[in-house]
Specification:
By secondary structure, the chain is an alpha/beta fold. Helices cover 33% and strands 28% of the residues. Bound molecules: adenosine-5'-triphosphate (ATP) and magnesium ion (MG).
């Protein structure tokens, strides 16, 4: 049961920003999506999550057609997204952030047991790493079949990222399909079984991490950046 994006076209502000994007997020593994600023990575996540309209193409999860569904329906079909920038409800407590996300917080608290000790804290008072942990935990409420994480490592120290990564690995090991969107190339290439590169709205490369590593020449995707 693969999450399949086929020939997807999406426009923003009257301009097409995703052009015939095709990629698979297979179950039981981490897939990486890499690309420079403005490539369209977040647009892809928002579109799969049902937050942006599709001009053409399709999004399916197994037999479920997600194209054009509202965000709540997409989520109920088991596709969860962590948007860019540690977005949590800052004026609510950790416990209430999880409650808002759905009735069954067990998978989230199993992934991040330290959130139990923080449950009465206001989300806005958490560190950046704790907020990203909470954002991930919210997405894990209910045990999603697919998880899309937009820039897991953004603004976080490597040690903090290192605390978050095992939860994604464990989720994939339990059978979920994970799409990891990163500019932090080394991390994505280490974790993913398949890698896709998005360049100005086009998928320009895809393959195993070794294949893609060998073909990456651009400075922004080089080993010197963020590694
Ligand atoms: N709200 C918006 N209205 C109009 N155009 C937008 C909007 N948000 C993004 N865009 C445009 O869509 C294109 C893709 O942007 P997107 O945010 O998806 O890229 P990204 O790969 O996530 O970049 P980043 O690495 O900076 O997060 C860019 O050309 C951007 O200028
Ligand atoms: Mg983005």
């Amino acid at each position: 049961m693969t999450l399949a994006v086929r020939d997807l076209r999406v426009s923003r502000g009257g301009r097409e920003v995703l052009h015939d994007v095709t990629l698979d997020v297979p179950p039981g593994q981490i897939t990486a999506l890499l690309g420079a600023n403005g490539a369209g990575k977040s647009t892809l996540v928002l579109t799969v999550a049902g937050l942006l309209p599709v001009t053409a193409g399709s999004i399916t999860a197994g037999d479920d057609r997600l194209t054009g569904l509202r965000p709540e329906r997409v989520r109920r079909l088991g596709v969860a997204a962590v948007p860019e920038g540690h977005r949590v409800l800052r004026s609510l407590t950790v416990a209430d952030n999880l409650r808002v996300a759905g009735p069954d917080a067990t998978p989230a608290l199993e992934a991040f047991p330290e959130l139990r000790d923080l449950s009465d804290r206001l989300a806005g008072a958490l560190s950046g790493g704790q907020q990203q942990m909470l954002a991930l935990a919210q997405a894990m409420v209910g045990g999603p079949r697919y998880l899309l994480v937009d820039e897991l490592s953004f603004g976080l120290a490597p040690a903090v990222v290192g605390r978050l990564v095992p939860a994604l690995v464990a989720l994939a090991e339990r059978g979920a399909g994970v799409l990891l969107i990163e500019q932090y190339t080394r991390l994505a290439l280490e974790l993913a079984e398949r890698v896709h590169v998005l360049d100005r709205g086009h998928i320009t490369m895809h393959g195993t991490p070794d294949e893609v590593r060998g073909r990456l020449h651009s400075a922004y995707l080089g080993e010197g950046n963020g590694g």
